[in-house]
Amino acid sequence: MKKRRKIRRVVWLLGCLLGAWSVSGQDFVPKREFRAAWIATLSGIDWPSRAGLSVEQQQREYIRILDTLVACGMNAVIVQVRPKADAFYASKTEPWSQFLTGTRDGDPGYDPLAFMLEQAHRRGLELHVWLNPFRVTTGEDLSALSPRSVGRRHPEWLVRYVGRWYLDPGRYEVRSYLLSVVAEIVRGYDVDAIHMDDYFYPYPQGGQPFPDGKTYQRYGASLFDDVSQWRRDNVNRLIKGISDTIRALRPGVKFGISPFGIYRNASDDPSGSATRGLSNYDDLYADVVLWVREGWIDYVLPQLYWENGHSAADFGELLRWWGLHHGRSQLYIGHGVFNISPKGKNAVWRTAGEICRQVRMQRENPSAAGSAFYSARYLVGNAGGLADSLKTRYYRHPALVPAIPWLDPRAPLPPERVQVERTPQGMRVSWQAGRRESLGEADPPAQVRYYVVYRFSADQMVNINDASHIVARVWGDAPAEYTDASAPPGQVVYVVTSVSAAGVENEDFSVAAPAGDARGRKE
Asked: Does the keyword Signal apply (predicted)?
């Protein structure tokens, strides 16, 4: 027997004032906060631990990583699926990655990206696919590449720099090819976001110039007086092209960039940060501020891998600077947990204390909306006790990924027929997808991406803005049910809401309780 009732809007509004704080009132618990870890696949950094593992070994390792991240309170993973013009997905144009198979033309025996998506979504995690656009090799030998590799099929597109081969960003054919790579993924997989990091033009080494002079003379010299301007324009065209491609194919898919932490130094530009180091704009030719200003990307995740007090790149200064220059894009902060080393020379990094301080600072900055940690292996290994700190304090309550309402401001339909049943396994909460009243609506609702299940004791005010009451995120294509094995003794009630791909939550909800139980405090 189902019991439900509508909660008046006044209760919801009062909850807005109180709900951002945990029940203890001590630590801030935002309901919306990006919490992610990078899973790097290049050379076995995070996964797979080595090339050529069996399907079962690869999948077991990946599941272990996900389960650790879920226990740490994460709500997203950023997985490298194209480390060097190769694929961790079934591609018609690019070869399987040797980091999977261990051989040049091997077949992993399954579709890793399909598996990774299914496992991430089953655990309520978004999956952001991470692509490296221009890198083709990490060594000299092109003959080691698969004949299917773009480097073998189009050697005229390549540039050699300091012992490595790269696709030449100045060639139109290269940019067009990369757009087709993005399109293949967006069409073929239910990804939550396309993600790129800081590797556009390669980092300068040993004072050696990037050898693209012939391309510049052919394509850029008549349009740009300065090769640096031309290089930035090449990357700008790629970023805008990717943005347009995603919007045309699947508008709900997000596009994020994780740039190097310094955009420009104040010594080169008065509006730059008080830092001294390489920069996106001047050295990598990545005009990230233009991208956020033009609305080409949905989130920017600068890699602030230095500590507070660093002489050349202070974390606090860079957090402040990015907080003023992220445009409408969501701002997330990248933390260098790889720095943690109990026996390291820098005492700041001998424990997780610096990262915990950075998480607190990110939360205190009104412009920042979350964190990502590089990389997953250090959370799996509990470097400096960081995983413990996240589990027991900072991320002890779940959070939803921040909304990107400019992608689609519409809310999905709320779920219907929410029911709760006591079972030997725990409280079983079930629901049905909402139904449209009219197929002819001018502005139909958004599709449901996932459902959020909240739990309250029967004597509590129902407040969906209090993150401490979230018990599960259930993907929209999964069975519409959740068994709460950790429900406390006594009477409890549940609320289920729906969330779109853009993160917009339908605020219409009803309260459900097991037959015979109370249904939550009346206002």
From this structure: yes
pLDDT exceeds 80 at position 442: no
Tokens for 15, please give them: 């909850």
pLDDT band of 7, cuts 50, 70, 90:
very low
Respond yes or no on whether the N-terminal peptide bond of residue 83 is cis (omega within 30° of 0): no
DSSP percent split of the chain into helix, strand, coil, nearest 5: 30, 20, 45
Token couple for 80 = 């490298």
Q: How much is the average pLDDT of 123-148?
A: 97
Q: Is residue 401 one of the residues assigned to a domain?
A: no
Give me 225's structure tokens: 């007086």
Domain end among 394, 422, 441: 394
- What range does the domain containing 421 cover? 407-512
Q: What is the pLDDT of residue 373?
A: 99
* 377 and 427, same domain (yes or no): no
d(CA 505, CA 64): 30
Question: What's the CATH code of the domain at 201?
Answer: 3.20.20.80
- The two tokens of residue 189 are 């997989």
Q: What is the spatial distance between Cα 297 and Cα 329, in angstroms, rounded to a whole number?
A: 7
Give the residue from 362, 394, 426 where a domain finishes.
Answer: 394
Task: Provide the 10 A C-beta neighbour count for residue 435.
Answer: 7
Same domain, 435 and 346: no
Q: List pLDDT tens digits, range 165-200.
A: 999 999 999 999 999 999 999 999 999 999 999 999
What number of other Cβ atoms are within 10 A of residue 135's Cβ?
18
Model confidence, pTM = 0.94
